[in-house]
């Protein structure tokens, strides 16, 4: 298993894709920080319902903004697995270690940590922007930071798992990216449907991160932090089971 983990780390470090995704994520965060922290101040009429956010709340808002960038873990997972399953490289890997579950566990661990590292970078970029652009004073408590980052880690792992499931099932990078991102969009749309809300990872993410529940906008129902975490864990487990089954029961 240690050899598989090292191999996955080398693959990731050797791909320009990861560093490009990190740069794009940082760019998205800077743009989002401008429109959330600066735009309401310089153009309040055009900003409409967007409130002016001061420190220390301005710092923690960024964690939720980073969590909403689900394209980052999805694309990362799809490309890293899809480039192997879509070519002879996957069959070659199986000759060295035939147990597909170990390959999946190694990829989940390494890519999950890589996605979390990227998300933490996004939070640091937002923090710098908030320090420069937001008014007020004070910083969140260490416990608040630790709580938000831990929740962010779970969210990143869920979407990495969904990306792996898409790549394992379709074995083609383009369609798998479309399915992974399409699912995130469809889930956000279905959140307006009350029966789906209790199982929506988007709604669970909103409830878990900062209490800004989908129900606050749509009306009806609530989800506690514990319920939100449970929903996300269930999605993570389901996605990994789908990924394992797709890798196990389909020929390499």
SSE blueprint and pairings:
Blueprint: H1 2-14, H2 16-42, H3 44-47, H4 57-67, H5 71-85, H6 89-96, H7 100-133, H8 142-170, H9 173-190, H10 194-197, H11 201-210, H12 214-218, H13 225-249
In brief:
The protein is mainly alpha-helical and 252 residues long.
Keywords summarizing the entry:
252 residues; mainly alpha; globular
Describe the protein.
- With 252 residues, the protein is mostly helical.
- The protein has one domain (2-249).
- Helix content is 81%, strand content 0%.
- The radius of gyration is 19 Å and the shape is globular.
- The protein starts with a helix and ends with a helix.
Please give the radius of gyration in angstroms: 19 Å
Shape: globular
**Overall domain count:** 1
Report the β-strand fraction as a percent range. under 5%
Give the SSE order as H and E letters. HHHHHHHHHHHHH
For the record, give the distance between the C-alpha atoms at the N and C termini, rounded to a whole number: 20 Å
Contiguous helical run count: 13
Structural class of the secondary structure composition? Answer: mainly alpha
Number of strands: 0
* Overall pLDDT metric: 84
The percent of residues in helical segments reads over 70%
Instruction: Report low-confidence residues grouped into runs of 5 or more.
Output: 212-220
Sheet of most strands: none
